[in-house]
Amino acid sequence: MKNQTYRMTMLFDFYGELLTQRQKELFDLYYNEDLSLAEIAENEGISRQGVRDVIVRAEAAMQEIEDKTGLIRRFEQMRGHLDAIENAAEEIKTINFRRYEDPRLTELASLISDKIAALKD
Predict the structure, then answer these.
(1) 41-55, pLDDT tens digit by residue?
(2) Cα R_g (the chain), whole angstroms
(3) Which of the chain's termini has less CB crowding within 10 Å, N or C?
């Protein structure tokens, strides 16, 4: 994946609901709200190390689930395939417009694009 923050937010998006409420709160403050460990510790009334321990445990728990399920890996692969299909559908529309002007080809290419958009949502 691209970088540590992106990887962690992806893990949180997929597996965040499996964390304890405390882990979710501190993880969200650190990664999504971009607060420092010291800021979180001060706001929560605990030590900086305590905050770090909770976040590290949350990261490890989510990474372990990803290692077992591979959902994010498969999601990323699927997204690449969908992009390729979408590009092919657009190319079909372009070729059809320039050479054939077949309304059925336009209709089918549009249907493919619509289904891809629905899958991406």
Answers:
(1) 999 999 999 999 999
(2) 22
(3) C
CA distances from 108 to 19, 77, 91, 98, 102 (A): 43, 24, 12, 16, 10
> Quick one: angle between helices 48-69 and 4-15, nearest 10?
70
pLDDT in tens, 7-40: 999 999 999 999 999 999 999 999 999 999 999 9
- Is residue 109 exposed (0-12), middle (13-18) or buried (19+ Cβ within 10 Å)? buried
Helices (H), 16-102: 21-27, 37-44, 48-69, 71-95
